[in-house]
Amino acid sequence: MLSNTVLYSIFGLYAIASIGLFTYGINCYWLLYIFLRNHRQQVVSDRRALRRFYATGGMDRLPVVTTQLPVFNEANVIERLIRSVCELEYPAGKHEIQVLDDSIDGSDAIAQAIVDEMRAKGHDIKLIHRTNRKDYKAGALNEGMDVARGEFLAIFDADFVPPSDYLLRTVPFLCMNEQYGLVQARWGHLNSQESSLTLAQSIGIDGHFVIEQSARSWGSLFMNFNGTAGVWRKSAIVDAGGWEGDTLTEDMDLSYRAQLKGWKMKFAYDVVVPAELPADINAFKSQQFRWAKGSIQTAMKLLPKVLKSDVGFRVKLQAILHTTHYSIHPLMMLTALLALPLLYWFPFKVSTLAFTALCVLIVISSLAPTILYLVAQRMSSKNWMNRMLSLPTLMAVGVGVAFNNTRAVLSALSGDKGTFVRTPKAGDKGVKAQTAKAYHKTKFPVAAAFELGLGAYCLVGFIDYTSAEKYLVGPFLGLYAVGFLVVGVMSLTHYLRTRTPSREAQQEN
Length: 509
What we know:
Order of helices and strands: HHEHEHEHEHEHEHHEHHHHHHHHHHH
Shape: globular
Number of helices: 20
Low-confidence stretches: 430-440, 504-509
Number of domains: 2
Structural class: alpha/beta
C-alpha cells in the first residue's frame, strides 16, 4: 500500500491534468462563440471591401509582390508548385517568383530546369540555392527577402497549389489597411479522400482554420501565420526582427513578434489554398512532432514578453492557451497513466451531487472539440455529414499521437533546439510510387512499440474500471486504448509498406 503522501500526490497530478484538459476544452466554446458571432458580418464585409477596391481602380494600385517558395528535397512536387505559382493572375511586371531551394539530393536541378522554362515564357522567376541550411526555412526566407523586389511577400510550401486568383484576393487587404502585417488564407486539401487518415486530418485542419483562425482574427486576438498560404508586408517582417531560426515554428514566432510590435493579422476566410496531406502515419507524426515542439519553444521564448506587454488580459490568456495548446498531450498521458494506480489504491469517496457535477463538466468539456469540428464542417463543406463519419478516426489518431507529441513537448522544455525534419510529399505519384532509393531511408518507428504498450495498459484500465462500475473514467481509457493501438499498428503497417518498393518503382530501377 502506498503512503498517503504518494497517493495524494498522484491524485493531485491527475486532478491538475484533468483541470488542464477541461480548460482547453472550454476554450473551444469561447472560440466557437467568437466565430458564430462574427462570421456573417466579417465575410460579407470582406467581399464588399474587395469589390470596392477593384471598382475604384484597385488593379492599377497593386504593388510589386514577390512569391517565395522555400523547398528542400521536393522532387515529387516541385514542378507542380512552380507551374501553379506561375499561373497566378497579377499585373504584368509586378510579380517576382523566388524558388528558395536548399536541396541536397539533386532535385534543385529539376527545379532549375522548370525555372529556366518559365523564365523563357516571360515569368520573372529565379532559383536561389544555398550551400548550407543555416536556420533552415527561416534562413532561406531571410536570404530571399534581402534581394526581393516586392513590397509584399507571398509564401507557399512545396505541397500547396494556390488558385490563380490568390494574389488578387489577398494583396488588396494589405493595400487597404496599412496596419495589416499579414494576410493568411485558409488551407484546403488535395487528397483528403485518399485514405481514412487523410480524411481525418482534413477535418482537424478545417477545425483550426475555419473556427480557430477566424475567431482569433475577428476577435482581435493574437493569430499565427501558418507557414504558407500567406502574404506578408515586408516592412512588418523587418520591424519584427526578421525570420529567426531558434524555434521549429518560425512562422508562429514571427507572427507573435510582429503583433507585439503592433501589427495586425488578417484572416482571409474566403480564400482557400489546397495542399497535400501526409498519407503516411509516420510522416504525419513527424509533422506533429515539429509543430508541437516548435509551439512550446515559441511559448517559452515569447510568452514572457506577451505577459509584460500592454495588450489586454483576454489577449494574454488566449496567447497562453494558443501557444501551449500541444500541452494537452502530456496532460492526456498523465490521465492515462495515473488512472490505474488511483483505482487500485486511492479511496474514492465522492458525494452523489459532486459526482454528478463532475460528470457534467467532463462531458461538456470533452465534447467541445467534436462540436468545433462539427460546426467547421457544417460551415465549409457541402457533404459535411458524410465527412463527419470520419470523426472517430480523427479522435483515435488525436489520442494516439499523445505519446509522440509528449516527447516533442518534453524535448522543447529540455532546451533541445532540434533539427527541422521535412514532411515527405508524394505529389501526383501517390504513396505507393515512392522510389526505391527513398524507402531505404525510412527509420523503424520505435515509438510504435510504446504506443502499443500504452494501448494494452489503457485497455486493462478500461476493463478494470468498467468491472468496478466506475463509469466516469472507464470510457476515456477505452478511447485511449483504441487510439494508442490504432496509431501503433498504423505506424508499423505504414513503415512496412515503405520498406517494400512498389512495382512501378521496381520497374524504374
